């Protein structure tokens, strides 16, 4: 299995790929801000969004239409895909979002799989109502804009909530295990480092 970070002008996108028994390269995209050309030679079977802000899903329609798959995200993020005042596209992209019509909606606690790999869904509201983190094989955590290296996502945007983020930080303190954290912006960190900084992070609210 390979994890590749694609740093776009807007956000970090991630490509998780592995080879099936027939030799086909199968992939999962997390936060489809990357260009379709980055996916040449891959069969993308899942397109996941950590949340619905335009900087993370600006190429979702193009990618999902090409591979004939839905954009998968939390059920509370559907409004962000449909409403530009929530997804901030006019501020981020300076144009309306190209909106994917085909959505698959998740809840916290759901699990996804591909080629024997498991992806657990953690609902982590705060930055948006339906922000999630995806935990791959209990080793790799894709945190979107919930967590960054040394800080957390903004809570002063439409649909954001400092109170929800505070509750999310409390929940993160109860999760056992250490994982490599792949954030929506910036450099990677570790979950143990995040947990050691929870009081500091709470003070940012």
Give a quick precis of the structure:
The protein has helices at residues 54-57, 60-67, 78-82, 84-87, 89-92, 162-172, 191-196, 198-202, and strands spanning 2-7, 12-19, 25-30, 43-48, 71-74, 103-106, 111-114, 117-123, 132-136, 140-144, 147-148, 151-152, 180-183, 189-190. With 205 residues, it is an alpha/beta fold. A 6-stranded mixed sheet has the order 1-2-3-4-5-6. Strands 7-8-9-10-13-14 form a 6-stranded mixed sheet.
Characterization of this structure:
The chain has 205 residues and is of the alpha/beta class. It has a single domain, classed as Ribonuclease Z/Hydroxyacylglutathione hydrolase-like (Metallo-beta-lactamase, Chain A). The protein is 23% helix and 32% strand. It is built from 8 helices and 14 strands. The strands form 3 sheets. A 6-stranded mixed beta sheet has the order 1-2-3-4-5-6. Strands 7-8-9-10-13-14 form a 6-stranded mixed beta sheet. The longest helix has 11 residues. The model has no long low-confidence stretch (mean pLDDT 96).
């Amino acid at each position: 299995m390979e994890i590749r970070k694609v740093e776009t002008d807007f956000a970090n996108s991630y490509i998780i790929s592995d080879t099936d028994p027939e030799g086909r390269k199968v992939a999962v995209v997390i936060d489809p801000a990357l260009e379709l050309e980055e996916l040449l030679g891959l069969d993308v079977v899942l397109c996941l969004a950590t949340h619905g802000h335009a900087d993370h899903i600006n190429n979702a329609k193009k990618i999902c239409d090409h591979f004939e798959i839905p954009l998968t995200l939390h059920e509370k993020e559907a409004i962000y895909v449909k409403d530009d005042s929530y997804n901030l596209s006019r501020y981020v992209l300076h144009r309306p979002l190209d909106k994917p019509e085909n959505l698959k909606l998740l809840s916290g606690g759901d699990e996804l799989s591909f080629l024997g790999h498991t992806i657990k869904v953690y609902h982590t509201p705060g930055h948006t109502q339906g922000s999630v983190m995806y935990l791959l094989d209990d080793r790799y955590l894709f945190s979107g804009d919930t967590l960054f290296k040394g800080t957390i996502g903004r809570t002063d945007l439409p649909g954001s909530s400092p109170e929800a983020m505070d509750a999310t930080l409390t929940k993160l303190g109860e999760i056992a295990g250490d994982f490599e954290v792949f954030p929506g912006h910036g450099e990677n960190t570790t979950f143990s480092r995040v947990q050691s900084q929870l009081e500091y992070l709470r003070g940012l609210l």
